[in-house]
UniProtKB/TrEMBL annotation:
Lineage start: Bacteria, Pseudomonadati, Pseudomonadota, Alphaproteobacteria, Rhodobacterales
Organism: Yoonia rosea
Protein name: Aminopeptidase N
Catalysed reaction, written as an equation: Release of an N-terminal amino acid, Xaa-|-Yaa- from a peptide, amide or arylamide. Xaa is preferably Ala, but may be most amino acids including Pro (slow action). When a terminal hydrophobic residue is followed by a prolyl residue, the two may be released as an intact Xaa-Pro dipeptide
ATP-binding keyword on record: no
NCBIfam families, per the entry: pepN_proteo
Length: 850
């Protein structure tokens, strides 16, 4: 009864729940292998129901007993849950079940992590705790009693009472079961308070297990208070309980979880100190804390009717955390970072066998749809909506959304309707962004005559699995025109494209302008524009839109890399001089200069080659990237030491954007310099670094030139006691190993005493490192494919969710030559043919094999 036969679920089959829940009382009698869960649930028939069937989800539960209105019942039990011929009137259902947290390695439901009891219920984990209508449109008020011999016992909401060995919690806000949480363990808190603008004093805690992590909590607390203030100021949203708890957990499948009043975090997504976390870690932690906090309104107060609506909360909450990061740091740099992530992950997803709409219309396992498309493209859709309606109407629409839907389990239709009601617009065409998969290609042609400049635009979305034909989308295209001196003759204007082909005219010009198209990445599309390299170099030097300025350099580099691969081109001085000019321009933000200096990844080049009709060869790509880096280093030889020196930061470390930008540029320069000085400067930086950004930056620079054995050992000796730092040690060696040694390095590390297959962070360090080493993973021997398949087969029975997620390493397999395709197909078929394979992984390999 362990693996219920996987079933496809369709959005179009949605029906309202047969029964609603008014209140839930849960009692947990904790035991590592024998936790008793006693439930008392007040049900009433749903007046809007279309069925009267009383069904409660339940999975891996040992049934003890059940009663209705105090009378014992004998329900029908199956691997999926419990059925009973229940009264067509309000009643109280009671049940007792037993579960075994310590043997629950799926990290879903109630499980144990280093002696701590913890939960993860989104999306469908609550059914592993007790029998319940485990669907987001059933919202209820929870009261929870925890009995256990542990000092700290936490659940959602506010504490009611507690004493030695027990605690009671009450959450006044009705919520779906996926927001339930419980924590029990020996924990210590960093405490603080925040007073909301209406004067509510909120107690804040960040909990960790004692013994090392205490010093890593302060930054998260600061980020939490900033998030609370920002949501009040920008969205008018106040916190609504007297207490907000965050708990760091070592074993966690995802980043973090927004459980009401009790956010649970992967330790890597909340704990940071200057010595152990990089600037990038600090920035990511700030964003995740904000993200989970913002869910309190966009996700918890207003939740999703069903899991097809996941983007309703995730797209909006990602959009909000991106706005927050822009406000806290640099808008330009944040936008560039977000676009890079979107292109690297979401465009990749959209271009392969796993492509799906922002709102999918079917799934087998919803955990497989926590994707870049739902999250990041979902956020882009909201950004486009805001651009189309304008900031003022966006604010009005959001106010209406919070007003109208507070307490609801809502849909994308509800979301779009508030915008229609506020603006009077018809958003039916815009709604295609939610239902149509694939990345639109925007082809640009220009013409100029008699003072009039015309942009001829064509949009086309390639077919995706299950969607052969595509309709035109509404594209907001931000455009500016520059004259030959780089002055803006037409400031940024948002063109609204709705047809497959459309022409836009700009009159009254005195000469042919240079167009800067899709400013600030105003729509998630791929622009195909045959600009000359001279025009690109001009935009790199002059564009007033920082995103497009960066993108011009990016396109130049990508184009050069592709010509190096296909035509044996050598780097032209035009490109190298353009880079040098940006690098030497002290008026530019160092963080921005670091981004311009960063080349597209080898994976980016592989994707770009495939898009242009070539079969990428990862070994050739790897060579070409190395060659270009060497050319850049040689061309900039005289400048590098000066910039490196300029980027030194005085005073104690802070993770703020300004010094972080300097360190980013310093590390980028160091990596280039290492190609020339054999790693001398990098070894020095490693030896003298007092923060992880510089220590790791130096180690990376050394490993990139096949040096650093001594430093790698020193790093392990220094950080062997720190799990999160050791994850970096594991990941870096694999991701930077020479291509022919990548699989062997990963395999060797799986034999390291600190490798733990059950810890997702550690598993991802090694195998995420492997997939991130494009030339290594795709080495022609096939060793990378085989090793990953072996380990996914081992992981699947323990942790289906993380296994399924890691199969996405194979999603570009059809881009490669027949030899590689054959090897990958064999690996995928070997996984697919494993007996007892989880539904999660089965769905993924089936889609991948197409
Ligand atoms: N709602 C969480 C977040 O985005 C993600 C949790 C997903 N967990 C899962 N098992 N699918 O913040
Ligand atoms: Zn989220």
């Amino acid at each position: 009864m362990k693996n219920p036969a996987p079933q496809t679920i369709y959005l179009s089959d949605y029906t309202p729940p047969a029964y609603l829940v008014d209140s839930v009382h849960l009692t947990f009698k904790l035991g590592a292998t024998d936790t008793r869960v006693i439930s008392r649930i007040a049900f009433r028939p749903n007046p809007d129901a279309t069925s009267k069937e009383f069904f409660l989800h339940g999975q891996d539960l040992r049934f003890v007993s059940a009663m209705i209105d105090g009378a014992p019942i004998t329900p029908d039990l199956s691997a999926e849950g419990l059925r009973y011929d229940a009264p067509d009137a309000p009643f109280v259902f009671e049940a007792e079940v037993e579960i075994s947290p310590s043997t629950n390695t799926s990290l879903e439901g109630l499980y144990m992590s280093n002696g701590m009891y913890c939960t993860q219920c989104e999306a469908e984990g609550f059914r592993k705790i007790t029998y319940y209508p485990d669907r987001p449109d059933v919202m209820a008020v929870f009261t929870v009693r925890i009995e256990g011999d542990l000092p700290v016992l936490l659940s959602n909401g506010n504490p009611v009472a507690q004493d030695e060995g027990w605690a009671e919690w009450h959450d006044p806000w009705p919520k779906p079961a996926y927001l339930f949480a419980l924590i029990a363990g020996d924990l210590v808190a960093l405490s603080d308070t925040f007073t909301t603008r209406s004067g509510r004093k909120v107690d804040l805690n960040i909990w960790v297990r004692p013994g090392g992590d205490e010093a890593k909590r302060a930054f998260g607390m600061d980020a939490l208070k900033k998030s609370m203030a920002w949501d009040e100021e920008i969205y008018g949203r106040e916190y609504d309980l007297d207490l907000f708890n965050i708990v760091a957990v070592d074993d966690f499948n995802m980043g973090a979880m927004e459980n009401k009043g009790l956010n649970i975090f992967n330790a890597s997504a909340v704990l940071a100190s200057p010595e152990t976390a990089t600037d990038a870690d600090f920035e990511r932690i700030e964003a995740i804390i904000a993200h989970e906090y913002f869910h309190n309104w966009t996700g918890n107060r207003i939740t999703c009717r069903d899991w097809f609506q996941l983007c309703l909360k995730e797209g909006l909450t990602v959009f909000r955390d991106q706005q927050f990061t822009g406000d806290m740091r640099s808008h330009a740099v944040t936008r560039i970072d977000d676009a890079m992530v979107l292109r690297a992950h979401q465009f990749r997803e959209d271009n392969g066998p796993l492509a799906h709409p922002v709102r999918p219309d079917s799934f087998v396992e919803i955990n497989n749809f926590y994707t870049a498309t739902v999250y990041e493209k979902g956020a882009e859709v909201i950004g486009m909506l805001k651009l189309l309606v304008g900031d003022a109407d966006y604010a009005k629409a959001l106010d209406l959304y919070f007003d109208r839907h507070d307490g609801d389990a809502a849909t994308i239709e509800d979301w779009l309707r508030v915008f229609e009601d506020v603006t009077g617009r018809d958003l039916s065409q815009f709604a295609r962004w939610y239902s149509q998969a694939g990345t639109p290609r925007l082809t640009v042609h220009e013409s100029y005559a008699d003072g009039t400049y015309q942009l001829h635009l064509r949009q086309e979305t390639p077919p995706t699995p299950g969607q052969e034909t595509k309709e035109p989308l509404v594209l907001p295209i931000a455009v500016g025109l520059l004259n030959e001196n780089g002055a803006e003759v037409v400031p940024t204007t948002v063109l609204e494209m709705t047809q497959a082909e459309q022409t836009f005219s700009f009159g009254g010009l005195s000469s042919k302008p240079t167009a800067s198209i899709l400013r600030n990445f105003s729509a998630p599309v791929i622009v195909k524009h045959d600009k000359t390299n001279a025009e690109r170099a001009f935009l790199l030097a002059h564009d007033t839109d920082p995103f497009n300025r960066w993108d011009a350099g990016r396109t130049l580099a990508q184009d050069l890399l592709m010509r190096m691969v296909c035509d044996n081109a050598t780097p032209d001085t035009g490109f190298l001089d353009g880079l040098a000019a940006v690098l030497r321009d002290d008026t530019l933000d160092p963080a921005f200069r670091a981004l311009v200096l960063r080349l597209p990844s080898e994976e980016d080049t592989a994707q770009a080659l495939f898009d242009a009709g070539h079969t990428p060869d990862p070994a050739v790509i790897n060579d070409v990237h190395e060659t270009l880096k060497l050319h850049i280093a040689q061309h900039l030889q005289d400048t590098l030491p000066r910039i490196y020196a300029d980027m030194s930061v005085d005073g104690p470390y802070t993770p703020d954007a300004e010094p972080a930008g300097k360190r980013a540029l310093g590390n980028a320069v160091l990596a280039l310099q290492s190609k020339l000085d054999g790693g001398k400067a990098a070894a020095q930086q490693f030896a003298s670094a007092d923060n992880m950004t510089q220590q790791l930056g130096a180690l990376r620079a050394l490993l990139q030139i096949a040096k650093g054995a001594h430093e790698l050992a020193a790093f392990e000796a220094q950080w062997g006691h720190d799990r999160l730092v050791m994850d970096k040690w594991f990941a870096l060696q694999v991701s930077l190993a020479p291509a022919d040694q990548a699989a062997a390095t990963a395999e060797k590390l799986t034999a390291h005493p600190d490798f733990d297959i059950k810890n997702p962070n550690r598993f991802r360090a090694v195998f995420g490192g492997l997939r991130g080493n494009t030339a290594g993973f795709h080495h022609r021997s096939g060793a990378g494919y085989d090793l990953l398949a072996d380990w996914l087969i081992k992981l699947d029975p323990l942790n289906p969710q993380t296994t399924a997620r890691m199969t996405t390493a194979f999603d570009t397999w059809k881009h490669y030559d027949t030899e590689r395709q054959t090897k990958i197909r064999e690996a995928l078929e070997r996984i697919a043919g494993t007996s007892g394979l989880s539904g999660d992984t089965h769905e993924m390999v089936t889609r991948l094999l197409g």
